[in-house]
Amino acid sequence: MTVILLRHGVSTSNTARTLAGRAPGVELTERGTEQAAAVADRLAMLPIEHIASSPLLRCQRTVAPLAEKLGLEPEHDERLIEVDYGDWTGRPIAELITEPLWRVVQGHASGAVFPGGEGLAQVQQRAVAAIRDIERTLAEKAGRDVLWVACAHGDVIKSILADALGLHLDSFQRIAVEPASISVVRYSPHGPSVWKFNDTGADLSALATAAPPTPAPGGEVPTATNADNGNAGHRDSP
Question: What is the pTM (predicted TM-score) of this model?
Answer without folding.
Answer: 0.84
